[in-house]
Structure formats: structure tokens, C-alpha cells
Amino acid sequence: MSISFPHVAAVIAVFCLTVGCASTKSDSVFYGETPYTLETDTIKRLKNIPELGQPQITIAVYNFPDKTGQRKPNDRFSQLSTAVTQGPEVWVINSLKAVGGNEPWFRVLEREGLDALIKERQLIRSTRELYDGESDVKNQLKPLLFAGLIVEGGIVGYDTNITSGGVGMRYFGIGASEQYRTDQVTVSLRLVSVQTGEILLTVSATKTIASYSSGGDVFRFLDMSTKALEIETGVATNEPVNYAIRTTIEHAVHNLIYEGIECELWSFKIEE
After folding, report:
1. pLDDT at 33 (0 to 100)
2. pLDDT-derived band of residue 127, with 50, 70 and 90 as boundaries?
3. Annotated domain spans of the chain
4. Strand partners, 109
5. Which CATH number does 5-111+147-262 carry?
6. Collapsed DSSP state (helix, strand, coil) of residue 42
7. Closest C-alpha among 195, 104, 105 to residue 148
């Protein structure tokens, strides 16, 4: 007994549809993509914040550590790779520099690479004195700027598998399924006064990270249990953790600006 033509046509149609969608996505993801600069919606909101109504604020950003201790999940063996980025201070600096757009609110000072900066200044000073004979005060390097405020904080939470679920069905050997999972990342920022050591502001922000997968399969006997046709296909989409952390930090900085307005630490410029 052989399988009828309509059954074969239905199997081929399902296979072409699922494999076609999956191959289209894989081609767009893995082939021919050039590097690009991503400007998030939150960064655009930071750039559109009104002009500062006082002199530019000098601020320093030190290390912004990962305080979660989370490792990348793996069912087979232990991994040393961390679950989140170890350089989030880059996004903190980028967010602070973006506030105000063309009229920036903050002068952000280098503190993460302070050792390298001091060594380079010492090298310049010793080279000038040794080879150029420049020991006059007027030819010396200008002193480093000091900050009145420090931004501290870190990634304080990374919770995996907050919610998960899925749905699937099978009919006459043709099946399809969908699954999803959500994780959650939380960052915290605090603004500290250098003069007094007082914590002036503290804010936190949380974002959900979504993962989604879908797949289909076909299993049919073609000739009295002697010949079998089996086809499987699927695709998964995972939101990048680094992107989630970046947007969460940007949102926290946005909240920091407006909480500072409420606490009268700074103010918008009043148009005359």
C-alpha cells in the first residue's frame, strides 16, 4: 500500500514552508551582515533632554561590576564564562555623555583606566625633562580634573527562567510546536557627593529578556511500515543579554536625571 499523492503534497508543502522560513532567517543572520552602530530609543530620549540650567557638571565613573556571580547555563559541564558582560561601565559613560545631546550635561572623567593615564603623563613629563629640557612650570602638563560627583552601582540581578511555556500539536504525523522563556536583569545606580560622601540619589531599573523558539516535524510511513519519511526543522530567537543590559543602564540614567530634578540637584534651563 503506497501513500496517496495528496498526502505527499501536503508533507512537501509543510516542509517547504517551515524550512523556507528557517533558512531565510539563518541566511539573514549568518551571512553578509556588516558591523553597524546601534542607537537605541533610550539614547535618543537622553539626547532630547532639555538644556542644563547651570554650568556643566563634572562627574566620574569608576568600575561598574557584575554583582550577580551568574555563569552561563550549561547542562553538560561547568562553564567559567559569565552570564552578563564584564564591562557595563562603557554603557554608563556612553549614557552620561549622551544626556543633553549637543549641549551635554556632564563632563565625564576617566577613572577606569586611571593607572594607564597617570603612567602616560609620567612618561611625557620625564621625556620632556630629559630630552627637551622643559622643566619650567609653564611647560608642565595641566593638572587632572577632579569630580564633584561619582556614579557607582552595578548589575545586581540576573534571574533566569522567570517564566517558560509552550504549545504544540500533532495530526497524522505532522507536528508543530512553540516555546518561550523569559529572564530578567536588574541594574542599580547611585550618585555620591565627593565632598561629603553622602549618597544623593539611588535608582534601579529592570528589563525582561525574551527567548522564543518554534519548530515543526513530519513523520510518515510511505509503504506499509517499510519506508518512513522524517523531517524536522526549527528556529530560535534570543534577545542579546548585552543589549538588554545596555538599555537597562540607559533607562536608569534617564531616571537619575529626572529624580535629580525633583531633588533640586540640577535644573532645566529656563528660556527667557
Report:
1. 66
2. confident
3. 5-111+147-262
4. 60
5. 3.40.50.10610
6. helix
7. 195
